[in-house]
Structure formats: C-alpha cells, structure tokens
Amino acid sequence: MSTRILHCSTSVENYNICVEHSIAGFSHRGPQPNDLIYLAVKVGKKTLCGVRFRLEAATDSRPWPDGERYAHALTAKEVEFCKPFDLAVLSEPGGKYWSIKYVQSSKPITDKAACDLLDREFKINKINHFIPFQADTKVGSTPTSPIQVPEQDTDIAEDAPLTRDSIKIQAMLAEIGNQMGYNIWLPKNDRSRVLEIWQSKQNFVLNDLPLNYNIDTLKTIENIDVLWIKGRTIVRAFEIEHTTSIYSGILRMADLMALQPNLNIKAHIVAPVERKGKVMQELSRPAFRYILGQSCTFISYNSVEELAKEKRLKYMSDDVLEEFSEAADLIR
C-alpha cells in the first residue's frame, strides 16, 4: 500500500470527472488497490489538492475526453474532501525540487515526513462534500459556482486536448521531420491526438522502435515526445514542454544520455519563448550540463512554427535546426 499524488495537469475537467465517476486514470500500471491517492490539479500558478481516496478495483471505464491516454484505471473508495491547499507545502520535507520527488508520474512517496504532512494539511482543511474546482479557485476557499474557464485559455482548458499548443507543436515537428524524409516516432499515449491534427500521415509513424537497446533505454526512448529516425538511428529527439514542469523533459533526456553515454543524439527542449530562461537555467545546472553538454538545446515554439512554413523542407536536412536552436551557456 503506497501514498501517491495523481496530478491532472491543468485540466480541471479531468479532475472533476475523477471525483464524479470515482475513477482514477494512470499512464502506467504501478498504482494498485488500496493505494492512498491525493488528487491534484494546477490552477493558475498553484498545484492544489482537494480530494483523496483509496484505489479499489481495475476498470475498463475511461470517462475523460482524453481517456485513451490512460493505460491503467481503477475505481475509488473512501473518498474524502477538503478545501484546496497548495501542494507546495511539500517543499518543507522535499526541498526545492519537491515536485519531481513526490509528484512526477504518480510515484510512491516513501518519505514518511511528506506523507504525514499531506495527511495533516488534508485534515486541517477537511470538509464533508465535494465542490468542483474553478479555474480561479483560491487556496483555502470553497468555490460554489460551476467551473468557469476562459474560452481561449488553452493552458487551463484541456477539454479540447486536440487543440492544445503542445499537441500542435508535436504535430508540426512530426510533419517537418517527415518532409525531410525521416520516419517518426510518437509516444503511444499521444499518438491518436497528434494524428487528429497530422492527418493522412499515419503510414510514416513507426509502430515499434527499430532499435537494439536494453529495456531501460527503450522505455526511456519510447516516451520522448517526437523522434526523427533514419533506418535504425535516432537523428533528432524532441521534448515539448508547455504546461508541465520543464524538468520532466530534461530528466528524460539526461536519463537517456546516462543510459547510453556513447549515443550521439541531438536533443532539443521545445517550449514557449517565455520559458527560454528557465530551460537555459536548468540545462546549465551541474546535474545536467555534464551529461547533456551541447547535445541538448532549446528551440522555441515560434521557431518550430516558422520552420513549418518553409516550402522547401523536402530539400533540406536536419542541420537546418542549428539555425533555430540555442545552447545553454555552460561556462561558469
């Protein structure tokens, strides 16, 4: 029996559906019956929790708009509610990188101090009924009106996942690589959503990775957002970071390079231009810079959109990306 945090990203709709249907969905099969789940969603700049429950039995039901993303779903029991509290309190036992330590991938929380803190905060704020989150929910408040999401705010309104900026960029990168003559790899959890935008190109998407690596390496590679592949070689790897923490993409790239230090892959973190500074800061950290070095660079959404408009892509090679990518300053 484990304690986990299930993060619904910025989708208040998915958060509310989890509670209304008493079902939790996960991208992997780690969570098990009787695990204690703290349900969370990002509202504005805060990650808020207002519900906890225990997992019960596995189910085939996937009531969310993007239900195909979830490989594992279980019903919920012993559901409890509280006024929303900010999970940033976990920085107390977990330090600056608490979100990676406790939130990422709904991993089991083995730190007793963190489990005790979650239990304490939940009990302090406990109420006896569920009230759906609003996009403008404030910490410690009890919202009473229906969900209100600005129509054009795709950072919050994930009820139309096919139009999310990150999915659009994923589709653009797939199209650019395909135009240049590369086969494309897309993670299985994202594939259907990307192909809704990148229509009629399904024959160019690989169903299996044509690579001979160990299981750990393949598991890391298959979750990278976009790969350009020639024969049995990965030419370019792209991690797209929009509303999620930029650590996830950088960590995945670092894991890959650590597992295969002789693998000569050019990797890119693709994000909105306003996040460039944060990406560069993280790439410059000692934990990453000695592993990634100059092999991982930043590309902005604007650059991807500009390159996608190029009419002569089929005559170009992947080297054109050097004009659009920026490396972090690794000199101290």
TrEMBL record:
<protein>
    <submittedName>
        <fullName>Uncharacterized protein</fullName>
    </submittedName>
</protein>
